[in-house]
Each structure stands twice: as structure tokens, then as C-alpha cells.
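Hi C.,

You asked whether I'd gotten around to modeling the 261-residue construct. I have! Everything is below, sequence then structure, no commentary in between.
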Amino acid sequence: MLKNPQNDNLVIAGRSFTSRLLVGTGRYKDMAQTKATIEASGAQIVTVALRRVDLSQKGKDSLIDTIPPQKYTYLPNSAGCYSADEAVRTLRLARELGGWDLVKLEVIGDKQTLLPDTEETLKAAKILVAEGFAVMAYTNDDLIMAKKLEEAGCAAVMPLAAPIGSGLGILNPHNIEKIVSTLKVPVLVDAGIGTASDACIAMELGCAGVLLNTALSSAQNPVLMAEAMKEAVRAGRMAFLAGRMAKQKTANASSPIEGIL
């Protein structure tokens, strides 16, 4: 039986969220725009790049002051790391700074394409899980690696839709759908989303959620785009729960033809 869409929370590592849209905190023109956009998105989980943001900074114009962790769940990430050791050290810092143990693991393998180094990601995931972290792992859209990350104990697996910041949308929907149908942990699309229809498609494929940043920060109107993404994720989820009609190769009249005068 399908879940009631009115009581259909996203659950990650035992933590429940009403919003299935996760957003980043970088690349906005100022803190005012950051705050307005995140509020408009309705997101409850916000990612923070530890190598680019000083979470020890307090006061006016600090991220802690603008996006208070009392209101939002911070998801520290290891963006900018190119090895397992570097990623592990970075995410350990999150625990030291604020006790955050729900983290996004990201290990990049190539500076030009920003594609993930899946071998180093898996290595880091095993270390972090053993240390008690709830790991949400960014990876490519490869089913085998997604299964290995789940087996390593990751709380969620996040395959890319397309390269980071590209806005190309979901390049391999079949791959994403296969990962979703195979894994038992939540699968969230991360990276490559460009507009609301991309987010909606991800949810229609059965993804548990969508994580994005550039699609908002690079939009001409970030706040309006955030509102669009919020509605797109909700609509896509409802469509998935509703169960779409079967595709057919021929026409099928919506009105019966029997009895026509």
C-alpha cells in the first residue's frame, strides 16, 4: 500500500524531515540572499562546505547567525577533498566544531570534471561509519558502487544526475531508477539539477530527495527558483506515490466509444 502523502517524511539515520529538498549554502551574492532563498525552499537540511565556510565564526553575516543550526539541520560536507584521508579529517572537524555526525561525504577524483573518486569515497565511508558517523555518500550513478556504499553502512547514497554545477539534469534516468529500486537506504539525487522539472523527474523516479545548490544560487531569481524547486519536489513525490499510468505505443481514447450515436 502506498504511503499517505500527508504523512510521508524523509527519514535518514533515524531522523525525520518533512521536506525532501536539501539545499546548499554557497555561491550566493550575500547572506541576505542566502537566507531568503533557503527560507523559500522550505528545506530543513542545509549543506555546509567545511573547507570554504568557517563555522567557528559568530555574529553578524556569519552562517551560524544567518542560518541558525537550532532551526536547520546542518549537513557538513567534504567538498574540495581529493582523498579519503583528507575527507575523513575534514568531517572529523565537523564533530569537533559542533557535534555534527550526520555528514555528506564527497571525494573528488578530477579537478576539471569534479567527478567523484568512488574508490576513495568507499574507503572514507568505511572509516567514518566505524567512527559512528551517519554518512550520506555522494557518488556516480553506478549501481555496483551504490550497493557497496550501502553495504559499508552509509545512511544514504547520493548519485549524481550530472556533473556538479552543470545544470544538465538527469542524464541517465535508468541508472538512477535502478539504484532506487535496489537499495534499501534512501537514495537522493545530488548534483546536476538545473531547473524544477529536473527535480520533479528525480522524485518521479522514486528518489527519496533532491540535493542542490547551483540551480538556486545561479538562477536569475534564486528565491523564486527555490519556491519552484520546493513545489517540484513535492509534486514529483506525489506523482511517484500515485503511480503513473502505463505507457502505450498506441492511442487510447479517454472517453469510451461504445454507444456513440
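If it helps when you're writing up: The first helix runs from residue 31 to 41.

Thanks,
B.
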